[in-house]
Design goal:
The chain has 7 helices and 7 strands. By secondary structure, it is α/β, with parallel strands linked by helices. It has a single domain, classed as Rossmann fold (3-Layer(aba) Sandwich), CATH 3.40.50.
């Protein structure tokens, strides 16, 4: 599904690293928690875990994911008039609002403008197909809607975090506190293996994977820039991993 900051183009690589390098816990199983699950493009491709707890702070997004999980029938077309109406009446149907707010908006930005292009792409249908494909592997996932710091962490769980990029705003124009997040990551890494998707990290975090790609900020693709997405773990966990040498930077 269209989602601002989503990892669809690199989701399979990230999921593979998490799946392969995560250890089995003392009870012989594996639990993974995603603190900022977004549209679940990465989470839907992670394999080998007995339990998945997927969290995001955005209420309408979690309502959407739960709704699809329960069999909600998403529309295949949304007109601009419908888009505007749903934007002004968000609580009439929270599942539909979540779908339209992200999946039918330019760049997947929350009600960031009705998505359109010169080829008349049906973004609603495109987003529906993408979301249903991802959700097909998440039928047993547990969805929660909390601040990442309030998510309960079971013993020996693996954590994946894809926080808002540093110096960017989160939902509702709320600026994300990156310094607080890295302090949190240091603390939980004392007991858990935590993977973090970011472009940069403090020096006590190690990048075990990276991929460059191009981001686009406008519909005409005039505002493009290259970034390098990386996957970090805390240095205290680095030596505990028995990773394939091709996956370690």
């Amino acid at each position: 599904m269209r989602y601002q900051g989503g990892k669809s183009r690199i989701s399979r690589q990230i999921a593979e690293i998490i799946s392969i390098t995560s250890p089995v816990n003392a009870r012989g199983g594996r639990t993974i928690i995603s603190l900022f699950c977004g549209s679940c493009s990465v989470e839907s491709k992670i394999q080998g875990f007995d339990r998945m707890i997927l969290n995001d702070k955005h209420k309408y997004l979690i309502d959407l994911l739960k709704g699809v999980q329960s069999g909600y029938e998403l529309p295949e077309h949304i007109s601009e008039e419908q888009y505007k109406y749903i934007r002004e009446h968000k609580d009439e149907d929270c599942v539909l609002t979540g779908f339209v707010g992200f999946g039918c908006s330019f760049g997947g930005k929350w009600f960031g403008g009705y998505a359109r292009n010169k080829t008349n792409t049906n973004y609603a249908l495109q987003s529906k197909r993408s979301l249903l494909k991802d959700m097909a592997t998440l039928k047993g996932a547990e969805f929660t809607c909390q601040d990442y710091r309030d998510v309960e962490l079971p013993p020996d769980c693996v954590i994946y975090a894809d926080p808002p990029y540093e110096n960017t705003t989160g939902y509702g124009n709320e600026k994300f506190n990156s310094q607080e997040f890295w302090e949190y990551a240091r603390e939980v890494s004392k007991e858990h293996l935590m993977f973090i998707s970011e472009q940069a990290a403090p020096p006590d975090f190690v990048a075990i994977w990276k991929r460059p790609f191009t981001r686009t900020l406008d519909v005409n693709k005039q505002n493009q820039f290259k970034v390098t997405e990386k996957l970090f773990i805390h240095k205290s966990q680095y030596n505990k991993l028995e990773s394939d040498s091709n996956e370690i930077i």
